[in-house]
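Q: I'm teaching a short session on how sequence maps to structure, and I want students to see two examples side by side rather than one. Could you give me a first protein with its sequence written out and its structure tokens following it? Keep the formatting plain so it prints cleanly on a handout.
A: Of course. Example one:
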Amino acid sequence: MTVREVIEKIKKESGASIPDGQTCDILIAGDPDMEVKKIGCTFMATVDVIKKAAAQGVNFLITHEPTWFNGPDRSAWVEKDPVYLENSI
């Protein structure tokens, strides 16, 4: 399955009927057409969590908390920050 197909299956199985773009549940990084080999879940996708997940073969990580520290996951405010640049996906 691809990332896109996994997302669609999760949406279908959950019974959610919220239109795309109406929530902060979005694909933050990566290719929606990439084949999913292993899925991981975490409360917060810290740099360490991402590194550990990758080391375990996880290539689709689902996180509860926003990636860029705000609800809608907008990253424009950190795009010139050296920490963001060092650890960006």
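Q: Perfect. Now a second example for contrast.
A: Example two:
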Amino acid sequence: MSVIGIVSMKGGVGKTSATANLAAAMATTLGANRVSVVDLDPQNALHWHFGLQSALTAGVCEQSLRGADWADAMASSEFGVACLPYGNVSEPDREAFELLLETDSQWVGAQVKRAGLGNDAVVLIDTPPGPSVYMRQVFACADLVLIVLLADAGSYATIPAMESWLDEVPDSDFRPPSLYVLNQIDRSEPLNRDVAEQLQRHLGARLAPIGIHRDEAVGEALAFQQPVLVYDPHGQASHDLARLASWVINTLNR
């Protein structure tokens, strides 16, 4: 089994869309029933990308508080990706879940293994933006972490904070490879192009070799509650995501 964590230091970078669409692209290559997504973001938005808008009340939060198996709340989609939502929960339940995660730094990794998804499974975990107990859990169990950012000044300014946070992870914790992924690239805009080039110089090999170009089809696909590779399979974003999926699979030796 391979676990991929998707994180960001700020909101609005398209992290959840990137998680969903990358998972769908990987499922296209690996085949159905091998790719799953887990929503560790209390916003509980990931399942919308797979047309699972019907009430999925039992999600990762409720299952964890009940001591139940995560697999029981996994919902299969028509796009070859199974999704475990965060769930619609009360504020006290969210706080109780986060306290549980604070208490046991290996909780998420243990539950993913307990779900029995199979040795050839790939699990992508979405997290809320910024440092959090969710981010720490992902770093404790992931084989690869992708840090999503935009080619803009705001994202560029978050890199020192991200690097500082990584440096503060105790040496005893497993540190998976962490690579930055540029999202919503638009080289027709001078500032976007200049920042992208600066990020390439600054991050070097820590910047994934394939970014995702800005494409209106990504937002349109969400409106239709389907991955962009289904909504517009020949679009720029779909092309980028297919290449990124192949690169991730090769990186994981899947």
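Q: What should students look for in example two?
A: Point them to this: Residues 236-252 form the longest helix (17 residues). Also worth mentioning: The chain has one domain: 2-252.
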